[in-house]
Amino acid sequence: MSIISIGVNHKTAPVEIRERLSFSDNSLQESYFRLLDNPAILGCVILSTCNRTEIYAHVADIEKGIETIRCFLQQKSGVDYTLIKKYTYAYRKNKASQHLFRVAAGLDSMLLGETQILGQVRTAYQLAHKYAATDKVINTLFNKAISAGKRVRTETGIDHHAVSISYAAVELARQVFSDLTGRSVLVIGAGKMSELTAKHLVANGVSGVIVSNRSYDRAECLARQFGGRAVKFDELYCHLHSADIVISCTAASHYVVHAAQVQEVLNKNPDKKIMMIDIAVPRDIEPDVRDLPGVTLYDIDALQNVVDNNLMERKRAAILAEAIIDQEVDEFAKWQGMQFVIPTVAALKQRGEEIKQKELIRAYNRLGDLSERERKVIGSLANSIVNQLLHTPITQLKTYALTDQGPLYTETINKLFRLEEMMQDANDSGRMEMPAKASSRR
Question: What class of enzyme is it (predicted)?
Fold first, then answer.
């Protein structure tokens, strides 16, 4: 019994394949029913985001499990099976758990170290659990993956360095103002980049938003998103004095903010401090503006430098993160290995106990009237013989459980001592914990 992961992501499959293999929330319950109706699947979780679709499963047989999931994906999506095989990757055993841990930590994301994926992994697991699609092994796998993702972020700070232009602007704004709470921003242009930058600034404490755009309707629409107000494009200088931060990103082929007009505003407010962020190419803000007292101007190159430097920091943090992931994967592998040994060890001890009790009864009957002390000595002798006889095989079995040969040695012990029937009886009666298939179907 092993963990496998079958899937596609932004690195392995084009968007037209990824979108056909994706899962909507409405399709999940039926998908889990269909997967778990196959005896090869003991438990599973479907992770479906804009950049990846992956199915993690605890399977009785690795190759049958992979084949089952690929056939399921083909039937669900209608994508030709040859394309399913071409674009899907398959991870087995420790590679599968390692992949999930890296995904949860943001190490496999398009944006290195991004934080959203951890929440997506958690939500995917919670839904699978809700639909009774998980078993003990899958539960432990995902809980450890979520824990590993948190640990990576806490110990490496991999998500503390802005690696998008829009968020880099926030980082620079903090350097200028320290605290953005209560600050105001004038947004010139109503495009996507202006919107993203304003969104990040508002999320970090900026409270006043003024939007100016050549199309007043678009300015109103963007201002409405942030509870701000729109102003006409030819009146933007009238409102410059109200802004602490200016974001400009228009499609103009010439400067839309000039040093002379900014100087006039500053003459009326000598103590005014303004940070200007020019994201446009060609530039919107005349470069001479940066020479004005109280003005800090950043252009797209300055923002890109911040992004590049922060990306290097994330790559350094990723090296530490990989070491953490290796530790977490090793711990999970040890736990998983022991799960298959525990029933065998329990059954072996039970077999020894049954033999001991049977022979003690026979010995006591043959010896006749014995004192309590004599019975204790004989019982102690029998205990010692059984314990010493079983100590080495049990110790060795636990050691081999942590290797690829663990299942082979476990099966050998089961056959040598005829433990299968005993374990099945114990499992049926709930007296012995076995890796069990997810219950509850329709």
Answer: oxidoreductase
Give the 3-state secondary structure of residue 382.
helix
Look at the block and give the residue holding tokens 């499609």: 251
Q: Has 51 been labeled as part of a binding site?
A: yes
116 belongs to an annotated ligand binding site:
yes
Cis-peptide, bond into residue 293, ω within 30° of zero = no
Q: Once rounded to an integer, what is the mean pLDDT over residues 136-156?
A: 95
Beta strand 41-48 with 52-59 is: antiparallel
115 is in an annotated binding site: yes
Q: Tokens standing for 17?
A: 């394949």
Closest CA to 92 of 72, 63, 68: 63
Whole-prediction pTM = 0.69
pLDDT tens-digit series, residues 315-354? 999 999 999 999 999 999 888 877 778 888 888 888 889 8
Q: Rounded CA gap, 372 and 374, in Å? A: 5
Cβ atoms of 186 and 245 closer than 8 Å:
yes
Separation of alpha carbons 398 and 27, rounded Å: 42
Q: Write the DSSP assignment of 96-164 as a string of letters.
A: HHHHHHHHHTTTTSSSTT-SHHHHHHHHHHHHHHHTT---HHHHHHHHHHHHHHHHHHHHH-TTSS--S
In 3D space, the residue among 190, 340, 344, 208 whose CA is nearest the CA of residue 279 turns out to be: 190
Other beta carbons less than 10 A from residue 134's beta carbon: 25
49 is in an annotated binding site: yes
Residues 6+ apart with CB under 8 A from 287: 297, 299
Give the whole-angstrom CA distance, residue 370 versus residue 365: 10
All residues at 6 or more sequence positions from 5 whose CB lies less than 8 Å from its CB, including other chains: 54, 55, 56, 57, 89, 90, 91, 95, 96, 99, 100
pLDDT per position as a tens digit, 180-225: 999 999 999 988 888 888 888 898 899 999 999 999 999 999 999 9
| 348-to-45, 339, 409 alpha-carbon distances in Å | 34, 15, 13
**Dihedral, 169, 172, 174, 177 alpha carbons, nearest 10:** -110
- Residues 106 and 110: their CA atoms lie apart, in Å, by 9
List, by residue number, the catalytic residues. 50
